[in-house]
Please model this.
Amino acid sequence: MKTMFLMWSVAIMFAAVSFAAGADRVPAVPGGDSIGAFSERVKERKDMVETQLHGSERTSITDDAVLRAMLRVPRHAFVPEANRAFAYDDGPVPIGYGQTISQPYIVALMTQALELKPGMKVLEIGTGSGYQAALLAEITPEVFTMEIIRPLYEAATERLDKLGYKTVRTLAGDGYIGWPEFAPFDRIIVTCAALHVPFPLFEQLKPGGKIVIPVGGAFETQRLLLVTKDESGGRTSKTLTLVRFVPLVRSTP
Ligand code: SAH
Model:
């Protein structure tokens, strides 16, 4: 009897300890920590921000909100197991289906160019792994993202949810036509290269809104454009840098 009691006490103690340990990791919203990824590889993220983004020889990334997001989002949790070792390298990382997450510097440059503010509504074309969407969600809860490759859409939707990015809305489909149901958007970011700025996307932009988009042919050097819609609906565009993105496609095989 006494032994039974002892066993029960030990069991209850264990339960209490593991509950407390679990409680410690309960998510701060947004960006919950259900798989502990946020507390992993923090040093590598710091190094990435310091050496690749901040005060780099390229145009430096100076927007605090962008730097904070890059520091916080666990990039390694967005790439396949086999490529996790390279997650914080200064280059793109394959995510399957012939697609890649862009180099951290390009991701930061595009996010900074958006001048995204809390409360703004942003549409991303090319969800891929969901990494860029998570960064956007660190700045505003109003994130909408579209992906044409269904398995990538499914994996990213599940990943974003698991990591606590509950406000991000994902859609499987052709981003060329945008997401009229939720238009107009303050900002649009396209993470695949188009031959021109898709007309429906420009139409779904608010006056005063901005689009960041790589424009050019598949697998050749493209121009990363910042397109602004003025109050009367006119367009101005500026080339930020030269880039190489996977192409925007209108259908999948
Ligand atoms: N932003 C992503 C990486 C994008 S890679 C990330 O953070 O991981 C470019 C993505 O654009 C690919 O996943 C590709 O399937 C997708 N894509 C290509 N054409 C598309 C289209 N018409 N509509 C939506 N997504 C498209």
User: Anything to note?
Assistant: Residues 2-24 form the longest helix (23 residues).
